[in-house]
Amino acid sequence: MRPKRAKAYKKVMQFYQQNHGFREPYQILVSPEFVLEGAAKKIDIVKALEEVVGGRVRLFISHCGIRDVRTEGPNRDSAIATSKQFEKRRCPHRTPIAGAECTGEIVGPTNQHNYCVATQDDELRKKLRKISGMPLIHISHSVVVLEPVPKQAKEESLEQVQVKMGLPELERKMIKTVKTKARDAKAALAPRKHTKAMLAIRPKDTQLRDTQQTVSLEKDGVEIELHGCAVSRRGVFGYWALVVCTAGLAYVASVWYPGMYARLAMRPTQLAQASYIRVQQGDKQLALERVTASPSDGSFESGFGESKERVECNFTNKTELRAFSFRHHCFVFCPTFNAFFAVSQWKDAAWTRGTATQVSGLSNNVVVQRMRVFGKCNIDIQEKSYLQLLWEEALNPLYVFQVASIAIWCVEEYYYYSAAIFVISLASIGSTLVSTKHTARRVRAMANYVCAVRVLRSNVWSDMESSELVPGDVVDLAEPGLDVVPCDMVLLEGNCIVDESMLTGESVPESKVSVVSGDHVLESIDVAAHTFDPAVSRHIVFAGTRIIRARKARSSYPGFSSNSAQPFRATAMVLRTGFCTTKGTLVRSILFPHATKFRFYRDAMRFVWCLAGIACIGFIVNTINLHRLGVSPGEMAIKALDLITVAVPPALPASMSIGMVFAARRLRKAGIFCISPSRINVASKVAVVVFDKTGTLTEEGMDVLGVQTVSQTLGEFGELQTEPWGLENTSTMQYPGEDAKVGGRGLSVDVALATCHSLSIVDGTLVGDPLEIKMVEFSGWSIDERNTTSDPHETPTITACPPQSSHQDIRVIVRCFEFAPELRRSSVVTSDLNGRQLAAYVKGAPEVIRDLCHPESVPKNYDTILNTHTQGGYRVISLAGRMLDIDAAQLLNRKSIECDLVFLGFLVFENRLKPATASVLCELRDAKIRTIMCTGDNPLTAVSVAQECSLIAPGTTVFVSHLKRPALCSSDGNMFVPLTSVEWKESTGQSIELDPVTLIPKSTDPHNACKTELNRPYCLAITGAAFAYLERHAQGTPAWKHMLMRGAVFARMSPEQKAALVDHLQQLGYISGFCGDGANDCAALKTADIGVSLSEAEASVAAPFTSRVSDISCVVQLVREGRCSIATSIACFKYLGIYSIIQFTTCCILYSYDVNLTNGQFLFVDLFAVLPITVCLDRFEPFSRLVPRRPTASLASKRVIASLIGHTVLTAGFQLAVFAMSASQSWYHAPEPATPGDPDSTPEKGDLNTILFVFSAFQYVFMGVVFAIGPPYRQRAIRNYAFVLVTVSLLAFELGVLLGPLPGLRSLFGLVKVQVGWRFVVFGMAVANFVMCYFGERVVFPLVAAPAAKMCRLARLVFTGRLSEIARRNSTKGLIDAVDTDTELSGARIKPSLWTYLGHRPGRKEYKILAHMHGLSI
């Protein structure tokens, strides 16, 4: 190897060593085509690879790779000899695949095993280059080459180094921007060679730089690209010339494809000079927005991003404020970064330094500048006029197609039919306009809110409308007229209680407290985030929330009270306004719901295009036939185009939403509200549902069972005290080594119950956490508010008075530290009325409180009693306390107070199940829908509740995870711990545990091993700590996936971990649902495919579905409606598709004689037969119970395709048979021109027209009956009374037309009299067609679907020449040649037969494969 190349390779490997942990010997995964190429070039692969990486190597090859080496290529023997030097690597899949593809699967998405990959497959290399830390090797011109480090990997590595150095994110972005500009400047100064052609196209290369930008809208969960554009006069002229030349068709096309206008009339330009911004997502253009420019007076000082040390963007007097708006996101151009930033990321430079708006408020010029950027403080949705809505609706492809169809029908003189369709289209458009306008007004009424507020500006308090507020304004919350908060604000002075049910669905009022100097709240606020950290949220008053009470207080924030004439205030500073607020996010999610990637919607348009293809074939065939008959060119064109309108029914695209509309209406009647109707169909495929416990599976308000106090003499727990008077004399003793002042003497359990809470009193009623209300009620103490000082303006203090007590027994809550999810505890500091005796009381999770207590104060039987209560399904909260030194108490922070505690006892709550919980979970389990509990409660309590409600099936062994805490951190501080540091122990204490790697049960006591227990079905209960550990160290491993498949209970989970769990389940292929109360579960509800929030609100930002039903029965109702909706949509699609085939066949036969159906016939078929049947098919209600088999959501599934093909053959075949049989009769007269030599004069009336119309009319009705399938997803057809009435009426009418002596009807439809005996033959053929279609739909087509699909796949393999390769791979001999007989290949010892292989679905979801591997039910 050349020294220069060796030096370059050495630098590459040093990069991977330093940044990605590669070490000698390097693990190189060799792909089979690399081995074959090396054999062909006669390269010593082992030696060459050692030279390339510059060190020792371990070479691996997969079993699939071995098979490919031994079965392919002319250099097979040499390649086999080389591959014998490699170690075998087990494949991660079950069925054999190509060696290169197998190599990619082994590497995985992150290359966690640090493989170097040697491959010749271009597609594989292209895929692996996207992985950071992926050394790639290939052979080029007989030389083994190590690819250089990708530019993206270098940038990511540099960014990781900067993160470790502590550089803020915006400083990292600035460094990256400066480097990019320096590189561009260097490139611009370098000499270039341009051809004249290049100079003509791009006169200045630098003009094309900085023309685009990628922006991530985290609140909406999308990533968009911004492209700078400027108007091109030539392009605009060319566009409108094209519109005129095409008679407006080009304009219609530009409406359907928005990117067309931008490409024709715009030219790319730099973002700094762009007059328009083209917003794209991938290759799809979303919008073309105009950039507005306003002058800046230099008072708008901004910073963007999330870091504490922000790079500020100062707008000088010479700088314009350039901005544009997209979907109510406002973007401002920042000259510092030469990029657009969303104003939702804006943060005042003073806030980053921890200071709020000045005491005097904002100045007028600052307000003017901020008003230009942020706009009015109002969520004002501009309603479109009826004319605008009409124009947009009229340009819908469906109506454009109908207009073209009406024009064709008018030319053919189908005036009545055209008029009827026109009236129906107008009625449909009018209905849509009224519905759209009503919805817009309803959303606008919900969003639009303006009230009077009192604002501090320029040191003057003034009254104004809330729409005039801007970020940084200081508002008086105690103003009597302020009931609903108009924007997101941070509380600076005072405190308040608010109702946030409009946003979160949580009906429990929330207490908000003002910021305290030194808490660094303002610095830590991420204004761009959708939600705030709980430690920050307690200071934030959100827009749309109702103020229950606002109370003035002396401010602890520096500067506010000292210089103000008003010593007591309740003020807040505006953080976000308009659509930047949390309420604005809710409204935007309603206006612009996420596009649902559901297979049904994708297949629907494919199906329409298939019908269009059939129509084109018919167009060509009939054009040739009509030309043969001598039809004039104009008439021939009209008839051929008319055939397209027949083959593609205009109502077909709309039919996929009709069933969804009826389902949404039924759900609304049941108290389930939906802001994303497309999710209803997605509910049909739900395979797993995750439930919160408290308030979802169990009752919201729990009852106190009692208090387990500590016996001071025995050092153990005493009896469970179920009455409050048993707690009066439970003062604690002093423990050795404690100071008398700070010891445990004087602490009391009843005082802890009465004071350790954050409740408030509003109008004489306790307001707050229902759990704390129950606790206080159990104590028997009364809670009141009173002034403990002589100052009448001082904020009242919460006091607790024991029953029948003296004045001296009253306890005052001095300080309150509310419950923090990350700490899992809350605490208070109390004193007597004189302030002489201070005590701290803490309550929280038992495992947390135990670590904070003196070991001597913890009873000996702590674990035994705790397990007894939790296994009994009770919720347990630990109580502890300590006495405080009076002088030092006010100086202590929360961490100093909540330590060295004395354990007081257990507070035990009864966790009662809701009445519907057990039955609903059993129904879901019977339907093969997996159910999981995800809660923040104790794991043993959760397991007990899960067993009680049958979420865990009877007879199932439960293993609970235990994390080995001492082994978590190594001596050097690295968080690398082997997987065995998580233990899985049986929940009831039996001598069984799980192997930490394989998760297979084993006995801990070999002498008492019980085979029965080892062979029982089992599940897992995972704690939040174990979940976080495994997520970090074992994600993607078989053990991790096995844990996700076996997990039934996830306990002590934080809100973020709940969302992560749902996301990991989705990665396994699950369509997931989550049901919670909408408060702490917001993230999980939005992450799930189907999120159901149990709330009183009609809509919340938490979830797409909100249920007023307080139990989980709404989940079953939603799944049933989803299954009914998707089954209805597919039935309508099939019916309308077959209807178009029937009419297409009829018209094709008639066109062969240059005749067609009459006006009356078309009217009857489309308006009085097909339309009522379609509407009635959509009115089927869901079946009463769920079945294990989920409905198909694909129109391209085997059963649907087999059904469509089968019915097409039967209906078309019977029509042709009736035609042939009629033509052979002696009385039959074929259509002939009225004027000899003029085929256009052929009359429509005749035997052929009459027979085909009557027969096809019966087919339309009978096919409606065929597709009226009821169970298992819909009610029986006999229960759909409208459908029965329509069907019977149509059949009676058609029989009257066929058999009855009704000359008026025959004249109306343009029919002729047919021989009486033949009428019965026609009806008999129709009945025979119905019987065969009915039997085929329910029996034959489902049976032949799978074999037919296999035969089609076999034919494709034969056509592509891959059959011999597949057969060889699936033979026993091929298996023996590939690997040794005792080696497991892809998890199976026996190869599938060719016929079985043909039935394998390549896109089978991973969770189904894992369930099959581990013997679990899907």
In short:
This protein has 1418 residues and is an alpha+beta fold. The chain contains 49 helices and 50 strands. Helix 18 packs parallel to helix 40.
What's the helix and strand layout?
Elements: H1 3-20, E1 26-30, H2 32-41, H3 45-53, E2 57-62, H4 63-71, H5 76-83, E3 87-89, H6 99-107, E4 115-118, H7 122-128, E5 136-140, E6 143-146, H8 151-164, H9 169-189, H10 196-201, E7 212-217, E8 222-231, H11 233-245, H12 249-256, H13 259-265, E9 266-268, E10 276-281, E11 284-290, E12 292-295, E13 301-304, E14 312-314, E15 320-326, E16 329-334, E17 339-342, E18 346-347, H14 349-352, H15 364-374, H16 386-394, H17 397-411, H18 415-447, E19 452-457, E20 460-465, E21 474-476, E22 488-491, E23 495-499, H19 501-504, E24 510-513, H20 521-524, H21 534-537, E25 540-541, E26 546-551, E27 571-576, H22 582-591, H23 599-629, H24 633-647, H25 652-669, E28 672-674, H26 679-682, E29 688-691, E30 703-711, E31 716-721, H27 749-755, E32 760-762, E33 765-767, H28 770-779, E34 782-786, E35 797-801, E36 811-820, E37 825-832, E38 838-844, H29 846-852, H30 862-871, E39 875-884, H31 894-897, E40 902-910, H32 917-926, E41 930-934, H33 939-948, E42 957-963, E43 982-986, E44 992-994, E45 1001-1003, H34 1011-1015, E46 1018-1023, ...
Parallel strand pairs: 1-2, 1-4, 2-3, 4-5, 29-41, 29-48, 41-47, 42-46, 46-47, 48-49, 49-50
Antiparallel strand pairs: 5-6, 7-8, 8-9, 8-10, 10-11, 12-15, 13-14, 13-18, 15-16, 16-17, 19-20, 19-21, 21-27, 22-25, 22-27, 23-24, 23-26, 28-50, 30-31, 30-40, 32-33, 34-35, 35-36, 36-37, 37-38, 38-39, 39-40, 42-43, 44-45
Helix pairs in contact: 2-4, 2-5, 4-5, 4-6, 4-47, 11-13, 16-18, 17-18, 17-24, 18-40, 23-24, 23-39, 24-39, 25-39, 27-28, 30-33, 39-41, 39-42, 40-42, 40-43, 41-42, 41-45, 42-43, 42-45
